[in-house]
Amino acid sequence: MDTSTVNIILDIIHYLFFAFAFCVISSYVVLSIISAKETIEYRKKNSFVNYKDILSSTMSPTITIIAPAYNESLNIVENVRSLLSNHYVNYDVVIVNDGSKDDSLEKLIAAFDLEKIDYVINEKIKTQPLRKGVYKSKNPAFEKLMIVDKENGGKADALNLGLNISKSKYVACIDVDCLLLEDALQKMIKPFLEETETKVIATGGVIRIANSCVIKGGKLIEVNLPKNLLVQAQILEYLRTFLLGRMAWSRLNGLLVISGAFGIFDKKIAIEVGGYDTQTVGEDMEIIVRMRRYMEEKGEKYKVSYIPDPLCWTEAPSSYKIFISQRNRWTRGTIETLKKHRKIGFNYKYGIFGLISYPYWLIFERLAPIIEVIGIIYFVVLIILKQVRWEYALSFLLLSYLFSILFSIVALYSEELTFHQYKKKGTGIKLVLLSALEPIILHPVILYSAIRGNIDYYFNKNKKWGEMVRTGLGNSES
Amino acid sequence: MTTYQYLIDYFSELPILIKLIGGLIVISVILIVGLTIYLKGIRRYQRNKKEEILKFKSEYEVLLIEYLYAEDHEAIKEEQNSFCEWVNKLELQPAISEEKTEEKAITPVQQAIISKLEKEVLIKSKRKIIISILYKLMDEVSGEMSVAIKELYCKTGLVNYALSRVEDKDWSIKAKSIGELSRFEIKEAHYEIVKSIAHPRKEVRKEAHLYLVNLFRFDGLYFLNELKTPLSEWDQIQILEILQKFEDQQICDIKPWLKSTNDTVVLFALKLAQIYNQYEINDTLIDLLSHNNKTVRIYAIEVLTHLYGLEAKDMLKANFNELSLEEQLGFFTMLEKLVIPSDEPFIEKHLFHKDFEIQLLALKILKSINIDKYIGLNNLPGDEKSEAMLKLENTF
Fold first, then answer.
1. Are strands A145-150 and A91-98 parallel, antiparallel or unpaired?
2. pLDDT beyond 50 at B95
């Protein structure tokens, strides 16, 4: 190849990278604008809503909270107490003890005065069998509680058993260690009840980080910014994701994922599609994609809704090891889901879902880390070949860095003008400084985790969930 | 100066793309600095505002509680509040009319408080705080106290602000003001609010519906007669909750709504029939078993079950195979409550229904009418048992 051909190839590669970066930045700008519109609309719509009637009404629909638990002995009793303190009237709580090897069940039996009952389960979705059986409390104060002890089958399997056992019209699938605010259910159920033309199949909620927050008796007392830099950076990341990203996708009716930590589903549809997929580590994303696909193929008007209020608080990983493991799993989950439902991608028959949501996830979530790493390698090669035009390289690098700071600050604005959770003096400036640090301290780790996720997906098929150690809400000092 | 000139020269010699990026970098830096300062300002403003609100709240709370508890038996009784005048003007009898006519006269202390608040409500932020406290107090008190709050709401002029906003072009302001007028039971706005029953925004429609029901109880439900837009589950629940709060539970004729062409109105009427035990409308309910909308049919079965609609049982039994699975399930739930020994052959026929829930219900019903036959099922060979029988094996 002569020099001119090499130069043409290099130019083409440059333009491809430039086009990709331009598309990423443009998509973020567009999503921010859409999310601003949606946030304003949401705030307007909900500024005068009276939730009290729905709270006390016996005509309100029934909801089952399904919370799978595996080796959660440390905080299980407190967590269940917190779930039982919701203000909604028509709800019950099903804790699925997924073959825990610790003394979770014994602790629950003692704390809630449980006794074994005969219970016939309609196995609409195949699950692992029961181990010790089904328990209910002898104490009427805990009549809403049911504990199911089963053989270990993973989170998806435990949720499927919850779907089988639930008698309610709606199910709230949550992580047992999450802290749900008392008004969470009535706010989350609202989209299902107020839509008349479109069927709401699921509603997702914002997940907030509870590390260092003061929690007493299962209630959130004070919101604090953690000292741990990794957790702080995740707070910023969550704000961007939930307040800018998902809010916009909700407006477009293009949400592909509802966090596994907290979401409410139309049980009938969830069962009709076969429940959670036990073969993926990204079961939360997969079920939404499958439900949407089902509705699209049925030709019914439907919606996946989203509530931006801070209703669910969870503990974020405070060590790099756990964080990498979590993000690795998320990457594998995304790959598995997109691969499984590749028929949808760029398929006009699926409307926005096939033409916008799927391609966006494929290009900007699934492929982005790979493209980024290729870019870095390519850049290193150019340095070695002394082909770098530094004025261009540095200008682009600086611009993209400044854009990422700007985008984070916009997310902080959104938070300040809406839910304003981090009220303490000095927190605002800390978060702004964090916006400058986050691309350096968090992004490289996310990139590394995503690449590890890709490698594990293709070369380490046996890898499943990975480690997730929790210190418990209210105990974390990060 | 030389360095500055060097930089200018350097920049002017750069390629156009770099110049463009340079410009974007400068804009980004300005935006970041500007937004950071502004963010700091916003946070400070919010903190100060919060403190101010807290201060005003505690101040006004004391004032309003003082107003509510101020009693002066020597007070002049000639003053009548505007509520009574409105009540007399209107054709419909409001839910509050009786309690209003027995209203107490205003004491000098109360008058002083009203005068103070009249000045305060001129400021929008303070007006909002006062309204929020009044809302809170309305939730906490009842009877004479709540009448006094409503009276205060009118006398301080707050009502005029809400009335002026009912015609606002912004739907959220309109809806909010209707909600406020509903909360303080301002009947004067009735004719204006009625226009919003068919408003294009569902939020405004909902507030208008709630206003009518809150003020005129069952009479306020007249809007259902002409309702073309759907009445959401959320609205239905709220309306039902309001209706159930009233002492007088004398319900109006719901038959026309059961025959409505608007399916959501029919579903709402079915809920009314269930809550208010409308036994006399069973014939109309039976007609609904052949309604075009499956949800209506299923709910009609549920209501008939609640109302012991025995006439429906035979009809459903005769058409059982034509029913959808949900309706069949609904019918078996009905049988669970209304079963008689002569239903046994029908039950036996469906012990092996394709649906597990129906199998289970059939077994349960059989157990209640013929325990020997139920126990006898245990002797069936394993491969002849239904899924439900196998699951229940241990409980035979």
1. parallel
2. no
- Is A409–B32 a contact, with Cβ atoms under 8 angstroms apart? yes
- Whether the per-residue pLDDT at B156 is higher than 50: the answer is yes
Give the CB-side neighbour count of residue A418, counting CA atoms within 13 A: 26
* β-strand pairing of A302-314 with A199-209: parallel
Give dist(CA A11, CA A381) in Å, integer: 15
Between A47, A59, A190, which is nearest B271 by CB? A59
Decide: helix, strand or coil at residue A287.
helix
CB contact set of B53 (below 8 Å; sequence gap of 6+): B129
B185 vs B215: CA distance, rounded Å:
6
Residue in B88, B142, B95 with CA at minimum distance from that of residue B249: B95
Chain A nearest C-alpha distance from B79 (Å): 34
Q: Do B241 and A428 touch (CB under 8 A)?
A: no
What separation in angstroms does the CA of A298 have from each of A295, A301, A357?
Answer: 5, 9, 19
Shortest CB distance from B176 goes to which of A47, A61, A391?
Answer: A47
pTM: 0.89
Give the closest-approach CA distance of A417 to chain B in angstroms: 8
Q: Which residues in A lie closer than 8 A to residue B33 (C-beta atoms)?
A: none
pLDDT digits (tens, 9 = 90+) for A295-351: 999 999 999 999 999 999 999 999 999 999 999 999 999 999 999 999 999 999 999
Q: What does the pLDDT read at residue A129?
A: 94
Nearest CA distance, B32 vs chain A (angstrom): 6
Q: What is the pLDDT of residues B74-88, one digit of tens each?
A: 443 444 444 344 434
Q: Which residue has the higher pLDDT, A139 or A47?
A: A139
Nearest to A429 among B40, B203, B394 (CB): B40
| CA triple B295-B297-B302, angle to 5 deg | 95
**Which pLDDT does position B82 carry in this prediction?**
45
Q: Examine the pLDDT at B137 and tell me if it is beyond 60.
A: yes
B34 touches chain A (CB under 8 A): no
Chain A hits for B43, CB-CB cut-off 8 Å, are 416, 428
Question: Contact at 8 Å (CB) between B219 and B252?
Answer: yes
* A453 to chain B, closest Cα gap in Å: 34
Q: How confident is the model at residue A472 (pLDDT cuts 50, 70, 90)?
A: low
